[in-house]
Amino acid sequence: MKTIRIVTIATLICLNAASVFAENKSSAADPRQVAITVGRLLEQGHYSRQRLDARMSRKVLDSYLQNLDYNKLFFTQEDVDKIVRDHGATLGDDILLGHLQSAKEIYGIFRQRVDDRVGKIHGLLKKEYTFKSNRTVALDRRKEPWPANMAEADALWRDRIEGELLQEKLNKQPIEPGPKVVARRYDQLQKSVDERDDQDINQVFLNAAAQAYDPHSEYLDKSDLESFEINMSLSLIGIGAELRSEDGYAKVQRLLPGGPAQMSGKINVGDRITAVAQGKEPFVETLDMKLDKVVGMIRGKKGTTVRLQIIAAGDPSKRKSVELVRDNVNLTEQAAKAEVIEKETPDGSPKKLGWITLPSFYQDMEKTRNGKSTSKDVAALLKRLEKENIQGLIVDLRRDGGGSLDEAIKMSGLFINQGPVVQVKDSNGDIEVYKDREGNALYTGPMIVLVNKLSASASEIFAAAMQDYGRALIVGDSSTFGKGTVQTMLELGRFMPMLGGSSNEAGALKLTVQKFYRVAGGSTQLRGVISDVKLPSLTDNSELGESALERPLPYDDVEPAPIDIANNRKPLFVEELRSRSANRVTQDIQFQDISEDIRRMNERLKNNRLSLNEALRRGELTKDNAQRDKEKADARKADAADTDKHYELTLADVDKPQLKLIEKKSSAPQADSKTDATKPDAGQTPSDDSNPMDGKLAGAEDEDANAPQPGSDAIKRETLNILSDLIDLSRSPRTVGR
Questions:
Q1: Is 87 a domain residue?
Q2: Most buried of 156, 312, 562, 711 (most Cβ within 10 A)?
Q3: Does the active-site annotation cover 347?
Q4: Which residue of the set 372, 425, 483, 515 is catalytic?
């Protein structure tokens, strides 16, 4: 089977002001040739086969403007109209001819607008504000039009800065005065925008060109390509430090277990890097250097030496020099893992259930035979779970944004006895059916696949196959993400002979080349996989999913592929399970909390406004705090009443005689596991660190996507209850249909 990579949310390690791993980056290839190659591949290789004509040129421009100023804050409509007149019909030709001057000119306008705006912001920060008005500001500027002209933009920014100052005033534990915090925020923004060089601008522009075709096509420069490969293989060569930019320094955010940095004992979380040296060469100062450039200096080949000058965490007076030898680092925290849950039954006998958590469908493409992969790891976990005599299994795909199509197919083969798993159609309309040919399922017992709106792509292939075969019950949000397209990674060096074919200096194009379909014939594109049993969840909202993205491909379907139901299908008792679950959810205090949170969230999304009145905001905060306190108390009650025992099973534990009991965590809602170095982008790629506002007022009440989610433990508990019911019904002599 040929190897196809499906890449979506949560699969790219960000190289902006977020966390990144220390490895290597060097100079890029001739940018003109890179642009020409990207343009030709888009025209000839994309599923739509659209030419880079005047119509596509306008789409490229819209995508570029959105990537630069995705909250519509710096450009005015007058700016946009002029840019459209000058460049709207010709950007496609510019790409195909390798002319990148237009992209630089547009970026120059953006840079000037940012510089001018930051100067005005400093003036606004000197004014006095009473915070007694009845005015409001938009929570999500992406839904608003561009300000018509500079006067309208000035008015917009007056309200916006007032909102940010109010937010700082509402901060319970302010470290610095509000005006100083806001000033530094925009000074950092200006610095980031001004520091972009031609290579950075080209990357943003070519990425915008790819995303004009669909939200999942993307141009990756050399550094992004290396990070993609790290994420797919769950391994890297480096020092094993996760870094974050803070106050001009590259600060150690986390040390990866088993990496040179952690094993040396000489580097601690919170240490700040001031200079980097290769081997015995002189140190190069890194203060105020862009984070990806610091990362590029720290990365390198296995066995080579890198030296770091460091300000010790907690004691700025201490300086130290650390010498490390780069080595392989395995990203074990992003691999599949499992639990064994002992659930008490009414008669007092324990019921053993298995729980496998899968963050992504990873595969080491360079070591296809002996390398790390999802299917191998899940197979190892399944064998140990079978030894533990589990009576049912849950596969948790919440926040699993996809990965390798091959691995989705192989993983499906662990649970079905041979047959088609997915259908793939190319731009010519030719359909190929991909099958599991092993013929021997490792696990055939009762099974649930747990999903949410952030389960995408390869996750949807697996979930859809399990549903179409009647092999597993799908539980979770109303549907999954809805990404039914296939991307392949095209390293541009292979199309540029001057680079020697295998070079990745020019980066790569992640290109949508096919669409995939369920064996039942329907597509998951836009619609996702519909859950058999729905549970209330904060991720189940209209802001998430393929339909919320720009320029998604349309839904369609194909003829069903014949499948062998007799040897695979298990009775799933859907109606009975729905009824039982609904009764429990109605009476569960944590699900009542989730329902209230959903109501409040939907109201805010609909209104899309934030008050500038301090009294009103304090009243809202009081209500929010009361709701959070109630949720914590309810979580404590639910936790105290929960008698289930959870045992940890990692890949390192599969051969150990005994599994470790997981101690109960006190009161707080449990977070879904997620590595800090990756973040879901829902198919949207804002222009790295050019703007601190991500669809909300900077500093507004905002919860990180990876922060603890209220009710996550309730969803886990109820999923276990549903599985327990499924086991009992499967044993019953009576027959209940789907």
A1: yes
A2: 711
A3: no
A4: 483
